[in-house]
Amino acid sequence: MKIVVLAGPESSGKSTLAAQLQRHFGGIVLGEYVREYIDTQQRDTHYGDIEIIAREQLAREDAARAAQPPLLVLDTHLLSNMLWSHALFNDCPAWLEPELLSREYHLHLLLAPEGVPWVADGQRCQPELSQRQAFYHACEDWLSEHRQRWAPLRGSWAQREAAAIAAVAQLWSADQRI
Question: How many C-beta atoms surround the C-beta of residue 42 within 10 A?
Answer without folding.
Answer: 6
